[in-house]
Amino acid sequence: MPSKALDTCVDWIVDYKIAVRITKSRNSKFGDYRPPADGKGHRISINHDLNKYSFLLTFTHEVAHLITYNKHKFRIDPHGREWKNEFKRLMVPLLSDSIFPKDLVIAIQNYLDNPAASSCSDINLMRALGKYDKRDEQWKLLEEIALNTPFRIRSGRQFIKGELLNKNFCCTCLKSKHKYVINPLTEVQPINPQHKSSGGLRS
Predict the structure, then answer these.
(1) What torsion, rounded to 10 degrees, do the Cα atoms 132, 135, 139, 142 define?
(2) Which of 27, 45, 160, 163 would be 21's cystine partner, CB 3.0–4.6 Å?
(3) Which pTM does this prediction carry?
(4) Pair 140, 186: CB distance under 8 Å
C-alpha cells in the first residue's frame, strides 16, 4: 500500500485487533470482512494481486464494515447508509496527492458520491485503478481487443467478443455457445485461431 497511508492502517489493525490475511486472487471480490466468531476476532482478507492503491481502497472498505458491525451488528444493510458514511469518513483523510495520484483522487471522490458494494461496479474507478496494475503483455483488457476476436480469461474458458450491451460485452462461449456478459475491464488473452484446440488452452 502507499507508504504515507501505512501508519493509519497499522493504527486500525492495532485499535480493532484485526487479523489480516492475504489470499489468492478471487474473481468475485477483492477482499472481505468477517466479524468475531468461534473465538476469533475481526478478520479481513485481501487479494494478493492488487496494486497498492486498490489494496488501500479495499482495506478501507473492509474496515468500514468492521466499524459498522461494531455499531449496529447485523441490524442494517451491509452496504447501506451507515456503511457508506463510515467508508467516506475513513477515505476522505486519505485523499491526498501524497497517497493517491491526482487522477485517482478525482476518480475516488466521484465514487464516494454514492459508493457501491464493490468498486468493480464503477467502471471509471476501475479503469483509473487499472492503469497502475502490472500486466503481462500477452494479456489485454476486453475493451482493447477487436469485436469477434476469440479470447480466453484467467480461468481458461474461451469466448468470442461480441457487441457492447449496456456497460458489458455480450460474449459467446466457444465450448457451450452460451452467451455471457463480461466486464470490459476483464483481463483476456487473445487466441490465435490456428492454435485453438478442442480441449482449450491451458493457463
Answers:
(1) -20
(2) 45
(3) 0.81
(4) no
